Amino acid sequence: MSHHIAVIPGDGIGNEVMPEGVRALEAAARRFDLDLKFTDFDFASCDYFDRHGKMMPDDWRDQLGGMDAIFFGAVGMPERVPDHISLWGSLLQFRRSFDQYVNLRPCKLMPGIKSPLANRKPGDIDFYVVRENTEGEYSSVGGRMFEGTDREVVIQDTVMTRTGIDRVLKFAFDLAMTRPRKKLTSATKSNGISITMPYWDERVAEMAKGYSDISVDKFHIDILTANFVLHPDWFDVVVASNLFGDILSDLGPACTGTIGVAPSANINPEGHFPSLFEPVHGSAPDIAGQGIANPIGQIWSAAMMLEHLGHIDAGKAVVDAIERVLAAGPENTPLTPDLGGKGTTSELGEAIAEAI
Amino acid sequence: MSHHIAVIPGDGIGNEVMPEGVRALEAAARRFDLDLKFTDFDFASCDYFDRHGKMMPDDWRDQLGGMDAIFFGAVGMPERVPDHISLWGSLLQFRRSFDQYVNLRPCKLMPGIKSPLANRKPGDIDFYVVRENTEGEYSSVGGRMFEGTDREVVIQDTVMTRTGIDRVLKFAFDLAMTRPRKKLTSATKSNGISITMPYWDERVAEMAKGYSDISVDKFHIDILTANFVLHPDWFDVVVASNLFGDILSDLGPACTGTIGVAPSANINPEGHFPSLFEPVHGSAPDIAGQGIANPIGQIWSAAMMLEHLGHIDAGKAVVDAIERVLAAGPENTPLTPDLGGKGTTSELGEAIAEAI
Ligand SMILES: CC(C)[C@H](C(=O)O)[C@@H](O)C(=O)O
Ligand SMILES: CC(C)[C@H](C(=O)O)[C@@H](O)C(=O)O
Known about the structure:
By secondary structure, chain A is an alpha/beta fold. Helix content of chain A is 39%, strand content 21%.
């Protein structure tokens, strides 16, 4: 079985870490005898925007729709194109048009990575954030009135549907069923956001009825962020709306010290559309062009892609390789400066590819 | 000059920590020769709700409107009354009706309190979160359609006004001017929340023009929560919308280990209405009734109230007393169990009152 993968590096360090992600995939393909085919795309980048006045060609859905997966770098160059234009014109389009309604992000304390939290060691923190990825607070409904006057007012709707909530909850509950602790935590704010979030809570309670093996709890988002810091060991699978999931899936990796290396999967579970795999980090214009960006987020995303394509062993081999290289430490392996080493992006990518 | 203070303990541990807050105020009044008058109110509690079917009497505005300040405990007993009813029927009413549009919360690493972050010591973290407190994501506009069917949809509006944003920004910039570092950080999410948050950014940029001494930066809320954990020393004054401020002002105190002791002020800066002072912690039904709740959040809120009423020295004396008692440690002072001690709520309250 062959897989056709769209490669979209995007902006900034996306261009530097992407080759290492592909290198890891090629290494895994050799070892596990997989047939991976890659096609590069230059759109969904601010360079493309400069040339064409838009982030993507009109037929982007046709170009990408038939792919088996999208391997994505990072997008955004806020000095050149405002973020809400570059992101809504690319990444957020993919998520919506390809109905990638699950954004899945592991938060795992890895060997050799320093957690900013006191007294936590590998194994202590190991959970998933499951983020709703197509609706909720990220809506395009709303507008501005009395523009330019003192009465100016802006309004934006949060829109949640039963369909939208239930399907991501189902994914999260199913994921929790595969985990030893069988625990699910829901992020809410029903005490303050008094219309949408009580509805979210209702749907969680309803879904829970079908999963009597799962122990379910919920926290308001404010105290939940506090508990990520105070009690990260409490969590197993955390399910959240688009905005809350966005926050938790940066904060979780930050607590494990892995914000620069964390991966994410934007999944259309039914497989009607290609899913998209990308590092959690952004395009990092401040360090772009220096060859020092950490490629692990991109490579770990490759692992999630392999698992999604059904190659569980290959995915695990890539994560194992990352863990072994990290555990070897900066004296023995070319870790990038953010990990306390002196390696370049491509040296670290090569070391991981070899370990695979 | 005498001050008339409304005392509203609310629910749960609110009833246990409030007497200690009042005790501290009385101690400060004796030492600084202040004339404080207290009136107790039993509404804004779930007990009141049980008796009257509503959280407050119809004339609550008349009863409280003439007070010089409101000293508040905590509200909420979710097992008995859903949070969105108890909160929208009390605390959130106060904030809105009394136009307490600034919610001010210090995040400070205190002596004797263990931070969950590695290698941080008192002095390293010392910033304020300034939260917009009357509009934004906490709106009551929206509703539900196709109820009970698969097409069910809920919609809630975020509403931001120029007036509402500008006045809280002005407070935050003015506060930053009083601080040695003169630094202001704005919380945004203009890359995802594409209508309201770009407007927030615009108003920040506009306001900044009038404060050339202030160095201004901004972060998207996802990476900002990460930076609270990774680089808490970066921050001086952080200004945020209602929801983002809610999150940051729980996360900030969590990073300093002080979530159980942090105070907050809900301020109407013009003094047209009474301001309200309350601990950050909630009613904590799980430990209510045991006499072990930590009263420091309530007492520190008393200090903020004294400062607000113009008694800067008295406020500082209360904070000093808290710091001295904390620094003495659990062997020498009756710290509550959450601080590693064996003291009760009232023993710790008494120790602080004596230190004042
Ligand atoms: C209880 C709740 C409605 C409230 C809020 O979200 O404003 C609380 O979390 C706070 O921060 O004061
Ligand atoms: C870049 C931005 C629009 C995006 C989001 O908020 O979804 C990013 O933060 C992410 O988490 O993938």
